[in-house]
Amino acid sequence: MNDSKNNIANAAENPTNEPKLSPLQKVFKWCRRYLTVSLFLVMGFIAYILFVSDYSIIATIKNENELTQLRREIKQSEDSLEYYRNLNRRLQTDVETMEKIVREDYHMQRPNEDVYLVK
Questions:
Q1: Which residue has the higher pLDDT, 79 or 17?
Q2: Which residue of 34, 63, 110, 117 has the fewest CB atoms within a 10 Å radius of its CB?
Q3: Could you tell me which of 73, 51, 74 has the C-alpha nearest to residue 62?
């Protein structure tokens, strides 16, 4: 009679009549049920796209950093270009500016002058 009461109690606790599983066995059973080959293929494809391909996150970040650096170089080149355009304009219109630059940069002098370089 005790056995029948135990069976009834066990049936109430476990209505599917499956044996009790350890936590590790439950995890394994869940993995076997939900982790399929197609899921691994899809996850592998997504990982390839995100990390390996030409459009990966790593390549995108690298390209963004390079683009930022190139934009800085363009800005610096535009500033230099503007400086030299102004200098060219001044040299074409102002004789004193031209004489100053020629004397300072190229160490030119007038025929009756002595020039001393001081550094």
A1: 79
A2: 117
A3: 51
